[in-house]
Amino acid sequence: MPHSVFVDGAAGTTGLEILDRLAGRDGIALIELDESRRKDEGARREALNEADIAILCLPDEAARQAMGLLDLAMGTRVIDASSAHRTAEGWCYGFPELVGSDRVAEARRVSNPGCYPTGFLALVAPLVREGLLPADWPYTINAVSGYSGGGKSLIERFQTDGAPAFRAYGYDMAHKHRDEMKAHAGLEHGVIFAPSVVSAYRGMIVEVPLHLGAMAGDPTADALRSALSEFYADSPIISVRDGDLASELLLEANAPPSDAMELFVFGNAGGWHARLVARLDNLGKGASGAAIQSLNLMCGLPETTGLRLPAA
Ligand SMILES: NC(=O)C1=CN([C@@H]2O[C@H](COP(=O)(O)OP(=O)(O)OC[C@H]3O[C@@H](n4cnc5c(N)ncnc54)[C@H](OP(=O)(O)O)[C@@H]3O)[C@@H](O)[C@H]2O)C=CC1
Ligand SMILES: CC(=O)N[C@@H](CCC(=O)OP(=O)(O)O)C(=O)O
């Protein structure tokens, strides 16, 4: 029997990329609502409850409302791409490399990680867990994203005459991703997060600069890189690159979709300064690709089925 899947918010940026990854896949039967019914509450209620798995690609408030439309007796499992449930009780954080594929495979409620937290957590969470980086450090994250990260409204803003070339934001110091980063890295302090947007459709670079020399235990950039390489050795999605090979990291204006994520650890000659960097597609491992990875696990399929990964 195929697994029936309903994407609520299928006409949005994340939803469309999920449909693209599901196109032509065996074992999946899509439940679709046409344009006239896609926001109709009754039609959505019916589709949500008919599905084996519902993927919510909605703004936070609409995602919470969708959860209220579910009849628990129907047993629909949920993957929520919004930030409504990322630190909520009873939800599995959909980052299989960090929480374990088995936990995602068995979960009834999976919260898809945010795009920026995906880069930050991939770099920092394993190193904190292994005691190589302190949990009580005041971490800072500098990041740049393609404009599709802001959904339809930001896409329109960046594709209209007079669009900015660069937009820095988050100056209220209260970006919604901060709690998610702190919670899932197991940190003691809130992070300082400096996000920005460039005039490229997709892609992001997330950087964590570190004064290693001021940390107890004197971790070195080489030690951090080795630990990450070992941690992700079996991952077909996350790879650790040799920092010596990169003197610059680029985002292409028209990059194709990718579900891969590359990690870099750059260190200075003395080894007391490091820059931990993740490069990923905000719509790939940062959103739609991650949702498909979780969907695959929940359906008992190989976790990379349907993902957009570069040829090995
Ligand atoms: N874009 C990205 O890179 C990432 C996005 N996310 C998250 O994924 C979710 C979706 O984001 P994104 O795709 O970018 O946003 P978009 O704005 O591109 O799409 C949201 C879609 O939801 C639809 N929608 C809004 N309210 C309702 C409702 N009540 N019922 C049914 N449909 C509704 C919108 O309809 P309409 O078309 O009429 O506006 C739109 O099609 C958000 O929570 C976002 O934070 C997470 C990680 C990365
Ligand atoms: C460029 C841009 O605007 N990005 C979004 C985050 C995108 C994302 O990860 O979405 P969630 O809302 O699901 O967390 C922002 O900063 O709010």
From TrEMBL:
Keyword Metal-binding belongs to the record: no
Family: Belongs to the NAGSA dehydrogenase family. Type 2 subfamily.
Pathway linked to the protein: Amino-acid biosynthesis; L-arginine biosynthesis; N(2)-acetyl-L-ornithine from L-glutamate: step 3/4
Semialdehyde dehydrogenase NAD-binding domain mapped to chain residues: 4-106
Location of the active site: C115
Location of this chain's protein in the cell: Cytoplasm
EC number: 1.2.1.38
Record SUPFAM superfamilies: Glyceraldehyde-3-phosphate dehydrogenase-like, C-terminal domain (SSF55347), NAD(P)-binding Rossmann-fold domains (SSF51735)
Keyword Amino-acid biosynthesis carried by entry: yes
Gene of this entry: argC
PANTHER family per record: N-ACETYL-GAMMA-GLUTAMYL-PHOSPHATE REDUCTASE, CHLOROPLASTIC-RELATED (PTHR32338:SF10), N-ACETYL-GAMMA-GLUTAMYL-PHOSPHATE REDUCTASE, CHLOROPLASTIC-RELATED-RELATED (PTHR32338)
Protein name listed in UniProt: N-acetyl-gamma-glutamyl-phosphate reductase
InterPro entries for the chain: AGPR, AGPR_AS, AGPR_dimerisation_dom, AGPR_type-2, NAD(P)-bd_dom_sf, Semialdehyde_DH_NAD-bd
Annotated function: Catalyzes the NADPH-dependent reduction of N-acetyl-5-glutamyl phosphate to yield N-acetyl-L-glutamate 5-semialdehyde.
Species in which this protein is naturally found: Qipengyuania benthica
Reaction catalyzed: N-acetyl-L-glutamate 5-semialdehyde + phosphate + NADP(+) = N-acetyl-L-glutamyl 5-phosphate + NADPH + H(+)
Keywords: Amino-acid biosynthesis, Arginine biosynthesis, Cytoplasm, NADP, Oxidoreductase
GO MF terms held by the record: N-acetyl-gamma-glutamyl-phosphate reductase activity
